[in-house]
Specification:
CATH architecture: 3-Layer(aba) Sandwich
Number of domains: 1
Structural class: alpha/beta
Strand content: 15-25%
Number of strands: 5
Shape: globular
CATH class: Alpha Beta
Strand order of the largest sheet: 1-5-4-2-3
Radius of gyration: 13 Å
CATH topology: Oxidized Rhodanese, domain 1
Distance between the termini: 25 Å
Largest sheet: 5 strands, parallel
CATH superfamily: Rhodanese-like domain
Helix content: 25-40%
């Protein structure tokens, strides 16, 4: 599984890189804090793949709280033919620890 660090994600955001960020956490977690990614909870991902089908050739970064659920999401995406999918290593917890300590983690 390909992974990306929060430092690499921060650089991509700052440089305006072309990528899609998908947050697979639950609604309550997303409402507490998010990185402005598209929100598709992991349990809904298989039935909502059509929402990101148009981005199949774009880099897609999956994120969650710590990287476990987003890792499962990467596996789902790859099994459906998505090839440029990365897991955000450490998730929003790593973002809060390394990039923005003011970001709450639920």
């Amino acid at each position: 599984m390909k992974e990306i660090t929060v430092q690499e994600l921060k650089e991509k955001k700052e440089n305006g890189a072309d990528f899609v960020l998908v947050d697979v956490r639950e609604n309550t977690e997303y409402l507490v804090s998010n990185l402005d990614g598209q929100h598709i909870p992991l349990g809904e991902l298989p039935s909502r793949l059509d929402e990101i089908e148009a981005d199949k050739d774009t880099e897609i970064i999956m994120m969650c709280r710590s990287g476990g659920r987003s890792g499962k999401a990467v596996s789902i995406m790859e099994s459906e033919g998505f090839t440029n999918v990365h897991n955000l290593k450490g998730g929003i917890t790593a973002w809060s620890n390394e990039i923005d300590p003011s970001m709450p983690v639920a």
